[in-house]
Fold this sequence. Notes:
single chain, alpha/beta, five-stranded mixed beta sheet, globular, binds pyridoxal-5'-phosphate
Amino acid sequence: MHAPTPIEASLDPTDWATFRAQAHQVLDDTLTYLETIGQRPVWQPPTPEALASYQAPLPETPGGFEAAYAEFLKHIVPHTIGNPHPRFWGWVQGGGTPQLVLAELLATALNTNSAIGNHVGLYLELQVLGWLKALLGWPATASGLLTSGASMANVVALTVARNSLTGTDVRAEGLAPLGGKLRVYSSAETHNCVHKALDLIGLGRIALRSVPVDADYRINLAALEGAIAEDRAAGLLPFALVGNAGTVNTGATDPLDALADIATREQLWYHIDGAFGALAWLVPEQRAALRGLQRADSLSFDLHKWPAIPYEAGCVLVKDAEKHRAAFASPTSYLAHHPRGLSAGPDPLANYGPELSRGFRALKVWFGLKVHGPAEYRRIIAQNIAQAQYLAAQVAATPELELLAPAPLNIVCYRYRSEGLGEAALNALNKDLLMALHEQGLAAPTYTLLGGRYAIRVAHTNHRSTHADFDALVADTLRLGRALRVAYA
Length: 489
Ligand SMILES: *Cc1c(COP(=O)(O)O)cnc(C)c1O
């Protein structure tokens, strides 16, 4: 007797020929979209209809690819954040490249899990980590991991720092034996993901000593040394120092070499958050400002910002590979290494971070580094810094505009000003002005507050911007500022 054969399902297309035609159409549409990106508004607020579509319930029956794609074109494409646009300079974001759209397509097709095993997912990640170490002047013996971004890279690095404390087995005993005494030092300009990382690794915000900065937004070394001494005298346990290579507000770089001296003397784990700024190392003229970058115990940086690898891609490097491994490796039978077969291969990457399953991030990084090459990245990074300096010079030369902070790298903070307007009025006017830039789809800088002043903040890691885009930003700022100032007079 045989059971009746069930009709067995799979999720693959039932009609490959139709699906193939759809796929070609999607690729064509995608390339047209990217080729003409600069002709559209930087940003368009979601329409009420689009917002309603984002709240629609999920139908039980399959709708098919064509219907979903039609909805994608209508309600999704027009309302993205806008970072691939040449006039997007918000937060710190990269714009991706069309070539790497294909890399992502291929990575998704291979759908490789890069946690463990004897396969290319691990070999390629180790290869790109090796390339990145070499590009940044880090030793080949350092370990590393591709992460979702610098936030996760900072979590990994600070976990290694915490678990490397001599005299305490944090992984076995937790933090209780340390009685809330651990302290980390970094400048007041440090990115808030470092605060979050300390929350996550169980130290709490109390563990972070926020050290004042000088007029250039760099950490005040005397204040740092004072804070460490004060904490030691109070019986606390200073254990880590975080330096910044490019702060998120103004692009300031701490004196990394002097921080390395202090970390050595004080026996602190030295971590550098170089989310975008570390990549300036590729440009020879920028190296003096980054002296000391190679002296850190760990370094975080993003590949989705300056190198324009599509989201998400960040990286952490750790000088002492054994400490890195000891912070995360956790032996178990189903992950055991074998002498041959699929369970052989390199040390599982899952031993170097909190996640087991991991996508094939390395493939887009591999494509990016090979397609664009260090030479193109050097050129774009240098070009972006020069363009930011050009914008800063335009602002400085225009009486109705004001630079609100030094612009040492690729971030320019400025505002519109007008005779007779007080600080409160200028803050309100510039906020209105920024929203008008966004709402009219003209440009997308974002904002920060510097000494109580509302700053329009241009963070430039955009390989598509030209001088004309910055001229347009200045012209638009002046036009909107003049129109708004009457309302605030
Ligand atoms: C962007 C940024 C981060 C956070 O990185 P993500 O990739 O967004 O997680 C951390 N530090 C600095 C200085 C940054 O610019």
